[in-house]
TrEMBL record:
UniProt subcellular location: Cytoplasm
UniProt-listed GO biological process terms: translation
Signal peptide bounds: none
Basic and acidic residues: bias regions: 65-74, 99-132
Assigned GO CC terms: cytoplasm
The protein's name: tRNA-binding domain-containing protein
Keywords annotated in UniProt: Cytoplasm, Protein biosynthesis, RNA-binding, tRNA-binding
Amino acid sequence: MGSIVKLRQRAEATENLLQILKNEVNRLEVLFSSGVVATGKNTELESLRQENKTLKSEVENLKMELNKGKKSESVKPLSSPDFSKPVVPEVNGVVQRQTKKEEVHVPKETMSKKKEEKTAKVKVKPEAKGDEDGSVDVGRLDFRVGKILEARRHPDADSLYVEDVDLGEGKLRTVVSGLVKFVPLEEMQNRLAVFLCNLKPAKMRGIMSEAMVMCASTPDKVEILSPPAGSQIGDLVEVEGYKRQPDAVLNPKKKIWETVAPDLKTNEFGAATYKGVPLFIPGKGNIISQTLKGVQVK
């Protein structure tokens, strides 16, 4: 037992010395390759390598002797040092560390579930009918023939009329118009006119206005546009070359009316036009102003 212990102690001491020499050899190699150590140290490096080799051989011999000892003593054989793993060298006393970024593996099932949840949260906004081709033109406006059944003065505004209008919808709409200065009240009663029907309803001095009566307009004179003879309540107004696809309600933020309005004018014959093309009711005729020609339609 005593001889085995001595052999083991000797082997461990030799192995420790071998490791020290190995570290020193590696350190000198790093310094030599980096230019820190002068070339004159090359002889010392070779000497250390040779001593390292000798000690390595001695360790192997001691292990062989130790492993031949009595197995009954249950002495655990020494394992050979792993020379395949590089020793981390020191340069000027600083340990050069190598780190490897760990990869995080996410199960495919988890990634798939997250993707499905994200997709489910995306809501698709239904497009308005008039937004199908993205065009902004007169086709987005809902012009229709309506009949003013009764008109009266606004109770809180001297310049406004309040009209009850039949557009063939089964119920009347309330329309507020600033026509007091231009159209006598008696001329507002029981007459056909053209209305823009898809403006967003808005209050005018406390009364909600649900459409707009279309007029030929100058600063000094305003005339309500007249539908052609034979027009009926609810007739649709069209413009050749522009598909009629009105929005249900014009979005004020998109400023569709403000974009189209500058191109609405009467021509030299008094016909209401969009970019020079007349507004008309199929099979019946054009929308006209009685006397105002070449003026804005509002």
